[in-house]
Specification:
There is one protein chain. This protein starts with a helix and ends with a strand. Strands 1, 2, 3, 4, 5, 6, 7 and 8 form an eight-stranded mixed sheet that branches. Helix 8 packs antiparallel against helix 9. Strand 4, helix 5 and strand 5 form a beta-alpha-beta unit. The protein is globular. With 229 residues, the chain is an alpha/beta fold. The longest helix is centred in the middle third of the chain and has 13 residues. Helices cover 39% and strands 27% of the residues.
């Protein structure tokens, strides 16, 4: 888990990532569940805004870290498809970088509809794992590594389905936009290690970082919708 936390923390600390999170908090209301909450960054920020912020993650170790780091939040170990919440009990639902890890993401969106009150807002955030843009002296190898990493996910391309998943589950006023995170320094290396592993390819990217020549960009898709009455 320490490697995953390192990657999550490095990403969450980026000014662009903070701006992305702030954008996703709009309109969530006074009671929000953050599904796949990880180390609880969003939960802590939502609680600081005065919301009742509930974090849910399937990993007990991650929930332990989140509860220690964000004491103002409420945390539960639970599956995204079976949330420990009553029907219509929250005004906002947020799922950030989690649906690609689910075998049946449509069940998670159906669960979002169940726990949201009428006119509650759902926000789905995530990357399409085929659309990582990485400058490299070996573009064919880089393309192969990106696609191999994507193929290891249960649903690597679910982000391009977000709009339809919301529509199929009765959400209205569905919108989609894209925010691209750009890395040009060594802060990206933990994420690149998750794609290419340790070895010559990563060493070449580290050399690029030292020479101020690293470039990686990840488009994040944000879809939101309103639960019909």
């Amino acid at each position: 888990m320490s490697k995953l936390l390192t990657v999550l923390d490095a990403f969450d600390d980026l000014p662009q990532a903070r701006e992305l999170r702030e954008h996703t908090y709009e309109g969530l209301g006074p009671a929000v569940v953050d599904v796949g909450c990880g180390s609880g960054r969003a939960v802590g920020e939502l609680a600081a805004r005065g919301a009742r912020a509930i974090g849910v993650d399937l990993d007990p170790a991650m929930i332990e870290v989140a509860a220690e780091r964000r004491p103002a939040g409420e945390f539960h170990v639970a599956d995204a498809t079976a949330l420990p919440l009553d029907d219509g009990s929250v005004t906002g639902y947020r799922a950030d970088k989690i649906l690609h890890a689910l075998a049946e993401p449509e069940r998670a969106v159906a669960e979002a509809r169940r726990v949201l009150a009428a006119h509650g807002r759902a926000v789905l955030i995530g990357q399409d794992w085929d659309t990582f843009v990485i400058d490299s002296d070996d573009p064919e190898l880089t393309r192969s590594l990106v696609h191999s990493r994507a193929d290891a996910m249960p649903n690597p391309r679910v982000a391009r389905r977000y709009r339809n998943l919301l529509l199929d589950n009765g959400f209205t006023d569905v919108t989609v936009d894209v925010h691209t995170i750009v890395w040009t320094d060594a802060a990206c290396l933990p994420a690149l290690a998750g794609i290419g592993g340790e070895g010559p390819w990563l060493e070449a990217q580290a050399a690029r970082a030292r020479a101020d020549r690293l470039f990686a960009a990840i488009p994040f898709f944000i879809a939101s919708g309103t639960r019909a009455a």
